[in-house]
Amino acid sequence: MEYEQLKLGNQVCFPIYAASRLITRAYQPLLDQLDLTYPQYLVMMVLWENDQVSVNTITDKLILNTNTVTPLLKRMEVLGLITRKRSETDERSRTISLTEKGLKLREQAALVPMQLAEKLDVGELNIDEIIDLRDKLNRLIEAIKN
Amino acid sequence: MEYEQLKLGNQVCFPIYAASRLITRAYQPLLDQLDLTYPQYLVMMVLWENDQVSVNTITDKLILNTNTVTPLLKRMEVLGLITRKRSETDERSRTISLTEKGLKLREQAALVPMQLAEKLDVGELNIDEIIDLRDKLNRLIEAIKN
DNA sequence: TGATGAAATATCGCACGCGATATAAAATTG
DNA sequence: CAATTTTATATCGCGTGCGATATTTCATCA
Hints:
The structure is a homodimer. Chain A has helices at 13-32, 38-49, 55-62, 66-78, 100-109, 112-119, 127-145, and strands at residues 53-54, 82-86, 94-98. Chain A is mostly helical.
């Protein structure tokens, strides 16, 4: 059994990669109604939890780089969801704030998690297993981040 | 506790999304030595396990669409790793085959899984937990695929 | 057998995602 | 305080990833 370690079925990383894309696909029809992409939805979740944050705060929470987040935020500004003002205390920094429209969207978005849970069909994995999955992934993430 | 379901920390999907990207980042320095990207490495794994397959086989195994895979394969053809011949029995189909160079690369690639495991630092999650994680993800994937 | 539908792959446009690099402002340091 | 380093964000180029649509060939069926 040479090269056993190179088989797809023996990989942990591939299921994570595949699951990530499948989940994004499952979200998309729901998010279309909010005119958001999945990464944009994540940014909104950060802001709904904590308005008026720096770009750095967003990159940290979402574990993304500025070269991903800056254009993302610009598109969201065009959509009228956020503003990107320069910080008054530190001219290098930008303060990202929700607009009225962005804040309002939260009400519609509140339905999304439940709708997604239905799409994922809880039958295959029960709540405890989902929580266990989440915790293991979070530990894996911490391990990789060092 | 309004909008509790919209908090990042309560999501399962976000850790999957984040872990996927972190893993790809961790792979990249190792794959750079083989001049491969992570998706290209996945295609190679499919072919090393089963040479001479159709585009459809690859899209099925990797759960990707043709509009992702076709350009991916074209780039890999330019790299001299594969060939893309039209099938003789069905002119619509293409047979993807490894070149000598592509086949040879397997020897170097065989080291990658171990090198990655070291990078991910097994300390945080032990082998049994990793296997459990993999199995839960595979069940989740099956559930989403319906 | 000719029309009609299905299957396999490809093209287009757009939004990420990131390594490498740039720019400007703040912090540090000699 | 001027020079240097660090920090925060932005730009560039390229490779995915995918919805929508097109193209070519095969299968089916009236």
